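Database export, one record per block. Field names are fixed; values are copied verbatim from the stored entry.
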Amino acid sequence: MEISTQCKFITDFYGGKSYLPGSQIIKNWLEAQRDRLLNPKLKELKDALGNEEELEKILCVFNSDSNSYPAIGDWMLFECARNAAKLANTWGRFGVSADTWKDYVKFSPSTVNLYNGQIIKQAQGVEGYPITTKIGGRRVSFFKAYQLIRAGATFQFTMSYPEDLCTKIEGKGKDKAIVPDPEKSSECAKAVISKMGNIGLGAYRIRFGKFIIE
């Protein structure tokens, strides 16, 4: 069984993969961002141009497909759905445990492209943030920059699941049997999909990467 879903980002979508040194595509993209990098907020990124080691530390980019276009990985959708399953209370409502969900639900395609009327071929911008965190009991501050795709971009994915994701009991006594419940399985899958947009995708999911089902 499967459900195909069309979605639209309602907040910007941020890349969360570290820059890989030597990527000419990213270098070319950064060159095209030079005017944007004049913004004082992005001084650290501008200063890092030409320094592969520094770029690897501070720049987060998108996953990509075979054409090097920005893409959402199926594993990202999977993790999003695992968190959404908690919000949907799949165990309490449908008797579907976290382990059952993990073992039987899959997403396709392996890389999901993004569109704004046509396929999006490169990141649409970059944003930077000073970050403060605790490491070994002490506060440490550093700078991170993120490729972004603006709100309004659309994407589509397919969730596949077995008809016995949910089951029911039929018959009585010696004839009693546990059988698949396709209707309830479908209801469970739809309940999770409805919560995925609240979880979001990519870096800074608490604030960004939120989407709606169209």
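Remark 1: The helical segments are 24-32, 43-48, 52-58, 74-88, 90-94, 98-104, 182-199.
Remark 2: Residues 2-203 form one domain.
End of record.
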